[in-house]
Write a structure and sequence with these properties.
The protein is mainly alpha-helical. The chain has one domain. Helices cover 65% and strands 0% of the residues. It has eight helices and no strands. The chain has helices at residues 3-21, 28-37, 40-51, 65-81, 85-103, 133-140, 144-162, 169-187. Helix 1 crosses helix 5. The longest helix has 19 residues, at 3-21. The radius of gyration is 19 Å and the shape is globular.
């Protein structure tokens, strides 16, 4: 799955969890935590496999439940220590949903379930070297699983809109701060 799909699935899962626990939508910072968390496994695995060659595939270490479990536990512990357990839960949902969604194609034989327990089960390294992003994109076009990501993203966008776009105010404030800082620095010259 691509980053957009992971973000959509994680957001929908977390929103569902929030709605099950209370009637309020996710908070601003929790949405950012879930979105960042949803990308962590790929941010670990892709560079280490594709560019440094120390992992067998782009779905190994960061996708293994043997790593993800303790990582979620650490997020929960740190967030609780700072009095923000909801951020730990949000990050955990984001991180935890990622490998599970990537493992879905194992149901129809299109992925190796060993990603979930690597290194206990071996993974075959890339036969022709690391793939390119353009190569992966070309291979994905027309695949139903790839196209489903856009449907999930559209559903997530509708849910996000109905919740009042939580998480959008923080980047807007940061952008305004940067704009005003640059304008102030230029005016002072």
């Amino acid at each position: 799955m691509w980053p957009l799909g992971h973000a959509a699935v994680a957001y929908l899962c977390y929103t569902g969890l929030c709605r099950a626990r209370s009637t309020s939508p996710p908070g601003e910072r929790a949405v950012l935590a879930v979105l960042v968390g949803s990308q962590i496994p790929d941010l670990i695995d892709k560079p280490l496999a594709w560019y440094l060659g120390v992992l067998p595939t782009g779905r190994s270490l960061g996708h293994s439940l043997l790593v993800i479990g303790p990582l979620i536990g650490l997020a929960l512990l740190v967030a609780s220590r700072y009095g923000r357990p909801e951020y730990g839960i949000a990050a955990g949902v984001g991180v935890g949903s990622h490998p599970l969604v990537d493992a879905l194609p194992t149901l129809w034989g299109a992925a190796d379930p060993a990603i979930l327990v690597w290194p206990l089960l071996p993974l075959e390294p890339y036969p022709d070297g690391a793939p390119t992003i353009m190569g992966l994109l070309a291979d994905s076009l027309g695949e139903p699983y790839f196209l489903a990501e856009f449907v999930l993203a559209a559903i997530a966008a509708v849910v996000w809109r109905q919740a009042g776009y939580p998480g959008l105010a923080l980047p807007r404030r940061a952008a305004r701060f940067v704009r005003e800082s640059i304008a102030g620095a230029l005016a002072g010259q």
